[in-house]
Amino acid sequence: MTLKLSRKRWNLLWKIGGTVAVLVIVACSVTIDSVTQPASVNGGGVLNVTLNATIITNSNPTANLMVAFLAPKVWNAAANAKLTFTSNISNGPQGMSPIPTTTPAPNGNGLSWQTDLMNTIGHAGNLIPEYEWVAFYSDQQYPTSDNSTYTVTVNIQVPVGESNLLFNMEYVVAESNDGLHSTVFANWPPTSYYSAFIPTTPLRVFGQGTLVDFIHPQLSVVTPSTALDNDIIALPFNAGLVNNGLTSATSVYLCATGYTSNGDSITVCQQTSKTQLQPNGTGNWQIDIWPRGFFNVPAGQTIDSLHYFFTDATGATKVGYAGGSSPFTFTFNCQ
Question: Which InterPro entries match (predicted)?
Fold first, then answer.
């Protein structure tokens, strides 16, 4: 889209922990009249977000509206989310569809919208790399007129699954001509053609299993967060995050107990190559395990949950959750 933007005026109103930025098809002035997003959702429920925007245009091109949001991968939001909008230049609810990952973003040097959003906008400070950008285009392109005012209401519905998590949502809206990097007019930076905002309050999903806290630094978080005992899982250890008995350790080992479906427990707590973590940067360690093999689980049984510590080479120094004496925990689950 070729357009020249005058100064944009952003008036943001966020409610119940939700803030969403909107840049629309073509505008010299965009006002978000209201944004409503709940602070929490129960597991298995639907996150409902409503955006109300006023758009004042200063040229008359035709383009698709693009709305994107950052979400946990476990939601599979590209397949499960539903986006619609209404406006004063359309009749009734207008559909939006996921943008395929093979569709290049305009002015994105061949990158997909999803990759361009990640590289340009980032990940909203989420620390566990199990997030993704999900982008939608309006199903139709819409012509606009010079010096006209439009009102748009966007409705976003995202099933959040059963995972128990705390996550920073982020929203971006742009359009299908300029994307995130337009330099059509030298006096206006690329950021004039899109906008992004992170809600002031993280979204809490009260789901099942261990809390997956994307927000706060953790000594150890099992990834992927949804896994069964027959999957490969990673157990990292950030020894330098808080002062603990292994902060200066030169070798670190896993001491773990698996709890089986029939009520038994299997403990592996030895300082051998089987349990030794590998260095992964200064103060960071990691071990990848196949739980069934690691615990030598008998046929007909499964590992339902995991309690674990990290130890030094002697086994005498043991570090658990928050650097203390309680174990880290993980509940196996698959959505």
Answer: DUF4961
